[in-house]
Amino acid sequence: MGASPNVPALCRELSLNRTQFNRYLASESFPRPDILQKICLHFGLDARILLQPLSELKNEPSKAQTFYGLHEFLNMRQGNVPEHLFPSGFYVFSRHNFIYPDTFIQGIVHVYRKDGMTYITGREPIFEMRKQSLPIDKYTREFRGMVLAMDTGLDMLVSRRRFMTGSFHFVATVPSL
Questions:
Q1: What are the φ and ψ backbone dihedral angles of 7, each rounded to 5 degrees?
Q2: How confident is the model at residue 1 (pLDDT cuts 50, 70, 90)?
Q3: What is the pLDDT of residues 144-177, one digit of tens each?
Q4: What is the pLDDT of residues 34-52, one digit of tens each?
Q5: What is the pLDDT of residues 109-144, one digit of tens each?
Q6: Assuming Cys at both sites, which of 4, 122, 150, 157 could form a disulfide with 9, CB separation 3.0 to 4.6 Å?
Q7: Which H or E run includes 111?
Q8: Rounded to whole angstroms, how far apart are CA atoms 113 and 58?
Q9: Residue 146 contacts by C-beta under 8 Å, 6 or more apart in sequence?
Q10: Alpha helix positions (H), the chain
């Protein structure tokens, strides 16, 4: 979520036509779905706020959590990951490179809580994206996921936008030597 100082800077950052963007702002036209998505992603908004009456929008995490009965299997109840077990904050991570398994990638993730659930977000390192000839913009590099408590540790289901890549991680405490 960027904070561009003005319309021209925002249009440059999002690669948008400034004249057309001004038409959106003046309600003279409406953006195509791909442009709308780009704008909403930049400001951290759900496009439904522009497409549906507010009275129809309901933020009910319980519906998502009971999707096909997974609630009982995935321990998706609110507060399932206690703060003392996995505190909110920034963490450095290391993992095998998915393309070159003999190498490791390091990065930073942010663990946070919203509506009683625990989430994780971060961005793939730019040099790793370049190695794979992938776009290096912040939207393509971003990944998000959810953290679930298990009996012996934590599970993290993480994906990039539109499930371009996905991964499943298990983290457990290990006694120090």
A1: -60, -45
A2: very low
A3: 999 988 888 899 989 887 766 788 888 888 877 7
A4: 888 888 888 777 777 777 7
A5: 999 998 888 999 998 888 888 887 888 888 888 899
A6: 4
A7: strand 104-114
A8: 19
A9: 117, 118, 119, 120, 156, 157
A10: 7-14, 18-25, 33-43, 48-51, 61-65, 71-74, 126-131, 138-141
- The owner of tokens 């919203």 is 114
Question: What CA–CA distances, in Å, run from 171 to 26, 134, 151, 159?
Answer: 49, 28, 11, 17
SS (H, E, C) 42-75: HHCCCCHHHHCCHHHCCCCHHHHHCHHHCHHHHC
End-to-end alpha-carbon separation of the chain, Å?
A: 42
Boundaries of every domain in the chain: 7-56, 61-171
Token pair in block for residue 134: 């992938």
Q: Are 97 and 72 in contact (CB under 8 A)?
A: no
Instruction: Note if the pTM is more than 0.70.
Output: no
The runs of H, that is alpha helices, within 44-159 are 48-51, 61-65, 71-74, 126-131, 138-141
The two tokens of residue 115 are 């509506």
